[in-house]
Amino acid sequence: MASETEEALDPRVVRTRRDVVRATGELLVEDGWDAVTHAAVARRAGYAKATVYAHWPTRLDLVEAAVELICDEADHPAATGDLRADLRAALADFADDLTHGHLDRLLAGVVEHANEGDVVARLRTRLYETGTAGMRAVLAAHVARRDVEPALALLTGSVLVLVTFEGRRVDAAVLDDLVERVLASTTPAGSADG
Amino acid sequence: MASETEEALDPRVVRTRRDVVRATGELLVEDGWDAVTHAAVARRAGYAKATVYAHWPTRLDLVEAAVELICDEADHPAATGDLRADLRAALADFADDLTHGHLDRLLAGVVEHANEGDVVARLRTRLYETGTAGMRAVLAAHVARRDVEPALALLTGSVLVLVTFEGRRVDAAVLDDLVERVLASTTPAGSADG
User: Fold this and answer.
1) What residue of B is the nearest CA neighbor of A114?
2) Same domain, A51 and A84
3) Does B109 touch chain A (CB under 8 A)?
4) Are A98 and A158 in the same domain?
5) Which of A110, B26, B32, B68 has its CA 20 to 30 A from that of A71?
6) Do residues A47 and A84 share a domain?
7) Where, if anywhere, are coiled coils annotated (chains A, B) (predicted)?
8) Distance between CA atoms of B61 and B82, rounded to whole angstroms?
9) Cβ–Cβ of A111/B108 closer than 8 Å?
10) Splitting chain B (194 residues) into consecutive groups of 10 residues, what average pLDDT does each group show?
């Protein structure tokens, strides 16, 4: 796409793209995948429907651009070096993303639409990895390499089901309990049997 | 609804309902919530669209009836009394429901459509409780009461993220590892500090 690079230099095009992708992301997290239509995006962003179609011919193109932007802009709490404090902060951040950031709806969208092809599978991986990157980094710094993946699945999975399927508020006491349970079966990074 | 009871006695009505609800369930697990339209359901079940509208005026009515039927018909492996064997069997059954039974898509559907009201919230609870009932029963029989809920969240959550978001095949070795990690922080049912 030769024109892509030229167009990208035009500040009006850059602004249009940013506005449209941001409007798409808002629709996606507020009302889900099905709310993302060219008409709804154009209305919300304040551009003509034809403009939206010109840059993103399909709904999946719109969803893809919005998910990429959401992931690009995601941030995580800074690590302090204290394993338990950092894990709790990363888990609390993940729980907050699920509820207030509507990560639960974004993840559900890519699972519901999984049979629409490779792009959706890639978005699913991108969302999951972005949402769990903070926790993975903390674990990698403190526990044996063989413990990282199971501990990550246990921590993220338990918070996901408590928040999303049981509708539970995961306060500090719940998070601390989960962290202690998971750490009970890990060995420190660099230990003889790590 | 007086007519509901009378109608239910008519075997033709019973058959129509069963056919339509089953067709709806097939559409739901194969293609997701959005595939459930009155037209698609009527076509698949072999009835007139007006018949479908007469019994289930909205798409949510159709989805609700299908999810209830799927949950009513769910079965779980029989418990043997061996904690580890029963937990592994229950987890393997849950993983199989996620992949082959498309429980992942059903769960994703209710999360994506969560802002459509109380019926969806009830279906979410029904699906999650049905999918995890086997594991909950095994845990309740063997571990201290205070350990049941966290252990359930850790086990179901970890399998959910491994299967649904990481696309991992959870074989016996993976399940055994998760079971041992979770049991490491539980105390047996009936013990002094349970």
Assistant:
1) B105
2) no
3) yes
4) yes
5) B32
6) no
7) none
8) 41
9) yes
10) 56 89 94 92 95 95 95 88 94 92 90 89 93 93 95 97 92 95 92 55
